[in-house]
Inverse folding.
């Protein structure tokens, strides 16, 4: 973004610029934690970004939240949501997440203040989040600007929002381009310039940092570690859940078949469109057990036929198992699992397959800096730590928002009115990870 483009905005009037009382303390804490981590070569996710919000849209139970002036609100504690019995939690890719960002975070931190919202991520889900926020805020109110840096070479040249993605700036308003498309993280100085220019115009800056592939196991070198952790997790879950005659991690042919089914499930239209590993793993188990084939039209939607929502697949599969005398006993555990997952979704829960996500967290714990030698290593991005430090020194406030569920980070929901989440003993989110 050029200085000429940025200069077209009027300078904001600082009068009436009131912010959350925890603002300065939070920014200083992020700076101190990041400097220490950079000097020691390791940092935890919870120290790097103390305000971290996962798929459940619950805020962490720390001093920035548990105060008379909370830095952010959980989705289920929003006034308009409190009256709902089982409010469905919006996914990161849903428009509801942009609404939550405004009502639960921006309105808590900034009051009647010009705000520039900066997203940093590695995938189309981050772009959709930024695009929805742009449509909700920036197009309607000149108080807001939205920018998004995406570091993923694989997205350049692909179609997004009706056009081909170029390298560099694209989309948004003429005065405030929306996306900066980069092959990696080496061009983050562009975003640092955006933040600096926004601050120079008396604007406040909120930075939304993605986790997987961005801060945790960053692209392009380390993101396969997350995928491998999930492959290991589904093997461990299946070994614990099913009878050994159906699946055993000690039987190589079982493991080989299961992982091949995971690859097949990942390639289905249903999995790609819904973009959720919970669904993909549940579909993997169905393919492995033979209740559905990866080539079935129901999971490769076309001609207006096929599953749209996970609960459709779960209901269909449970019904088939219950009404097939060859499967009723043999696949009773699969039917039980599908029924449990369907109940979670019916009750508004955003994480359909928590047992798998718990197994994923156990694998990531094992692969942390404090884990065993000889295993893959989960790492954090030094480039992202450097970037976060550089923008907090300008006064920007960074938080983490991820579609990764609480349980996969080792977070547990609290039974409090604020709907907070806390790390359990040895939680992955609190473990020191090497900066690379």
């Amino acid at each position: 973004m050029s200085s000429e483009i940025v200069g077209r905005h009027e300078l904001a009037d600082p009068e009436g610029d009131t912010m959350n009382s925890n603002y300065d303390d939070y920014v200083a804490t992020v700076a101190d934690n990041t400097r220490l981590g950079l000097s020691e070569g390791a940092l935890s996710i919870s120290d790097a970004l103390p305000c971290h919000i996962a798929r459940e849209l619950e805020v962490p139970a720390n001093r920035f939240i548990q105060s008379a002036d909370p830095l952010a609100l959980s989705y289920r504690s929003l006034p308009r949501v409190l009256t709902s019995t089982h409010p469905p939690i919006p996914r990161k890719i849903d428009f509801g997440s942009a609404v939550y960002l405004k009502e639960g975070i921006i309105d808590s931190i900034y009051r009647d203040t010009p705000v520039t919202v900066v997203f940093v991520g590695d995938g189309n889900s981050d772009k959709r989040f930024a695009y929805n926020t742009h449509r909700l805020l920036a197009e309607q109110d000149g108080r807001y600007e939205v920018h998004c840096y995406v570091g993923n070479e694989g997205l350049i040249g692909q179609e997004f929002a009706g056009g081909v993605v170029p390298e560099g700036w694209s989309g948004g308003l003429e005065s405030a381009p929306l996306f900066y498309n980069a092959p990696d993280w080496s061009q983050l100085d562009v975003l640092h310039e955006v933040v600096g220019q926004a601050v120079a115009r008396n604007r406040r800056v909120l930075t939304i940092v993605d986790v997987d592939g961005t801060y945790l196991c960053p692209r392009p070198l380390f993101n396969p570690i997350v995928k491998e952790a999930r492959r290991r997790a589904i093997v461990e879950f299946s070994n614990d859940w099913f009878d050994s005659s159906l699946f055993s991690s000690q039987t190589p042919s079982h493991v080989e078949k299961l992982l091949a089914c995971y690859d097949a499930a990942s390639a289905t239209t249903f999995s790609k469109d819904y973009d959720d590993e919970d669904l993909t793993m549940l579909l993997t188990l169905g393919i492995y057990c033979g209740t559905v084939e990866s080539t079935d039209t129901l999971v490769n939607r076309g001609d207006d036929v096929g599953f749209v929502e996970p609960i459709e697949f779960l209901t269909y599969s449970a019904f088939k198992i219950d009404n097939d005398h060859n499967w009723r006993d043999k696949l009773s555990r699969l039917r039980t699992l599908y029924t449990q997952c369907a109940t979670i979704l019916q009750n508004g829960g955003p994480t359909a397959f928590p047992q798998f996500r718990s197994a994923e967290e156990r694998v990531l714990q094992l692969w942390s800096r404090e884990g065993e030698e000889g295993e893959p290593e989960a790492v954090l991005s030094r480039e992202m730590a450097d970037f976060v430090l550089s923008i907090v020194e300008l006064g920007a406030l960074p938080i983490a928002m991820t579609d990764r569920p609480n349980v996969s980070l080792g977070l547990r929901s609290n039974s409090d009115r604020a709907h907070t989440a806390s790390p359990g003993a040895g939680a992955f989110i609190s473990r020191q990870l090497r900066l690379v």
The longest helix spans residues 23-40. Residues 1-16 have pLDDT under 50 and may be disordered. The longest strand covers residues 144-151.
